[in-house]
Amino acid sequence: MNLQKIDVDKHRDVIISFRRESFKVSFGTDQDFDEEEYVRWVQDQSALFPDGFILLMEKGVPIGQLELTVKDYEDSKIGYVNLYYLIRERRGSGMGNKLHQYALQFFRTQGVSEYHLRVSPSNHQALGFYGRNGMTVLKRELDGKVFRMMGRVEDGL
């Protein structure tokens, strides 16, 4: 297993496929997913945070993806997990821990002590993973469609 920075030109089809699947898992549909808008966003954000846009590879095949950034939230800088993704066959296998440890290290290097993400309340597998990794629900957002969750970088040591 190794981690590789996303090259949008080279990995375009993979990242679109993984993000589309994450929409389906989270919201039951990918109807609101816009491929071109997503690719532009990844290009822009990965230029700002090149170490935050990562594929998890197994024998040369992408099996997971991370999208990590830093944002302003309520007058402070926080880490933000835009995407934790593992292919269905590798969920529950411990591979998520490899992605999580990478995320914590990324946030440490960015100098943030807290990180957030949003998750669908119906995504029980993800909620379990986040809870096991010390994250807690802060509040509901987007008219109740998602939970905003928060974790502390030092809790993941």
TrEMBL record:
<dbReference type="InterPro" id="IPR016181">
    <property type="entry name" value="Acyl_CoA_acyltransferase"/>
</dbReference>
<keyword id="KW-0808">Transferase</keyword>
<feature type="domain" description="N-acetyltransferase">
    <location>
        <begin position="1"/>
        <end position="154"/>
    </location>
</feature>
<protein>
    <submittedName>
        <fullName>GNAT family N-acetyltransferase</fullName>
    </submittedName>
</protein>
<dbReference type="GO" id="GO:0016747">
    <property type="term" value="F:acyltransferase activity, transferring groups other than amino-acyl groups"/>
</dbReference>
<dbReference type="Pfam" id="PF00583">
    <property type="entry name" value="Acetyltransf_1"/>
</dbReference>
<dbReference type="InterPro" id="IPR000182">
    <property type="entry name" value="GNAT_dom"/>
</dbReference>
